[in-house]
Design a protein that fits this description.
two-stranded antiparallel sheet; 4 strands; 2 domains; 8% strand; two-stranded antiparallel ribbon
């Protein structure tokens, strides 16, 4: 059943530093295309308004200046419109916000200016084979061929498009042990504090990372793997209850 989950759901676990995992729900190409079409409509309406103003102003500045300014407006709207909206904590163009999407780094962090630039400057490759009206054939193939639905610009910039309305929560929340287990040996204050911190932070780590760290204290738990982690958690629970004076004697 576990091996089928990545194929049935776009929810993927991303491991960060120190074994911490977050869940990101990757957005597929169809919803991203819907956001792109909405942005196209917004850009078209905006440029039409600007063009009308420039045409009226063209009587004063001349036709050559007017057409030059129109070309600049079209250029900046096409290439810098996504970059302005996607950089920083916003991470989404108006079209993406309407459908509930956001662009982030693969770690879930906001985009930097450099990443936003690389991601959008490579759209001319993703938009092939046609550029007059982009078909995004290359980008579509790349999305379908990658596990995180990344087009070439995403791969180069290290970014992904996710569902913005899904909270970035730890993959696993470690439940408190059912029973407290006394320490088999005496520990120093630093060792006791380390044991308590292990229990408090275990919920932010993957199961494999918890077991890897727990095996460093095998001499205390007397076990390896999940059993060793469970014993360490129970001992930490005993230490915390004893400190609070709530442990029944």
């Amino acid at each position: 059943m576990n091996t089928a989950e990545p194929k049935l759901d776009t929810l993927q676990a991303v491991e960060l530093a120190e074994g911490v995992e977050i869940r990101l729900r990757m957005a597929g190409p169809m919803l991203r295309m819907a956001a792109y079409l909405i942005d196209c409509v917004i850009k078209f309406v905006g440029m039409m308004v600007v063009f009308i103003v420039l045409m009226l102003a063209g009587m004063a500045v001349g036709d050559r200046v007017m057409w030059g300014m129109m070309a600049l407006v079209a250029f900046f709207a096409e290439w810098f419109y996504p970059m302005v909206f996607e950089v920083g904590k916003r991470g989404a163009t108006p079209g993406k916000r309407m459908v509930g999407l956001r662009v982030v780094q693969v770690t879930g962090s906001p985009l930097t200016l450099g990443q936003a630039f690389v991601r959008n400057i490579l759209r001319w490759v993703d938009a092939l084979p046609l550029m007059v009206w982009p078909t995004y054939g290359v980008g579509m193939v790349s999305c379908l061929a990658t596990r995180r639905f990344q087009r070439l610009g995403d791969l180069a910039a290290g970014t992904v498009v996710i569902y913005d309305r899904q909270p970035l929560l730890p993959v696993l929340i470690a439940p408190p042990p059912i029973t407290a287990v006394p320490l088999p040996v005496g520990l120093t204050s630093d060792e006791t504090r380390t044991l308590v911190l292990f229990r408090e932070r275990a919920g932010l780590w993957s199961a494999g990372r918890r077991q890897e760290i727990g095996e460093q204290a095998e001499c205390l738990s007397g076990a390896r793997g999940a059993e060793g982690v469970s014993r360490l958690m129970a001992m930490a629970h005993w230490v915390q209850e004893k400190k609070q004076g709530t442990l029944k004697r």
